[in-house]
Amino acid sequence: PAPARGALLCMSAGGRAESQPCKGMLVMIDGEPFEVLEVITVDPGQRQSKSKLKVRHVGTGAVAFRTLKTGTKIQELAAASKTSTYSFFDESEEQFVFMDSETFEELRLHRDQVGDMTDWLTAGVEVDVKAFNGKVLSFGFRSKVIEEVVDLRPWLHPRGKQMHKAYYVCACLSNGLTRRGPPYLKVGDKVVIDPQTGNIVRRV
């Protein structure tokens, strides 16, 4: 669909209007590359309405806001996406080492680039890495994260009170972590994990 009248326009390298900026898009503003985190319309419907972009600088990682007049044309940048396979953790460099599935080149990510998803990295798992000029923008698993339930314990309320087993159980997983799970889980079950939250989604 065509962009709304007066909206911000993202331009391709050839100068043709492509779309309105949206979350996850890479754009060039004032000669600097940014990743769009959020788009906020200010004073919608007014003649001089503006759009505020919450952006992250690709080079420094600094988060800032940029306010632009409607109708402003900004250039959309192309990011490279690649599939890599996790190999091992280099303790000396404190880096997670991946292998590019096409070129077989090494890709190294620091712990802060992987975030809390480090808990679910196992040898051989495939991930998608989005990068621009060598800077990693996003990291995610290509397939579902599946762990085995190796033990079950009573789930304790944050106040220390044991919850009735009809509500939740404490599932000990094959990677050494424990998570709250539904009461129907049994030892030996395999469960799907949401790596973003670390929660058990369902039983396989």
Automatic annotation (TrEMBL):
GO MF annotation terms: translation elongation factor activity
Pfam family, one: EFP_N
Any GO CC annotation of this UniProt entry: cytoplasm
InterPro entries per the UniProt record, alphabetical: NA-bd_OB-fold (IPR012340), Rib_uL2_dom2 (IPR014722), Transl_elong_fac_P/YeiP (IPR020599), Transl_elong_KOW-like (IPR013185), Transl_elong_P/YeiP_cen (IPR001059), Translation_prot_SH3-like_sf (IPR008991)
Ranges where the Translation elongation factor P/YeiP central domain occurs: 81-137
Gene3D superfamilies with a match to the protein in the record: 2.30.30.30, Nucleic acid-binding proteins
Family: Belongs to the elongation factor P family.
Name of the protein in question: Translation elongation factor P/YeiP central domain-containing protein
Source organism of the structure: Alexandrium catenella
Lineage of source species: Eukaryota, Sar, Alveolata, Dinophyceae, Gonyaulacales
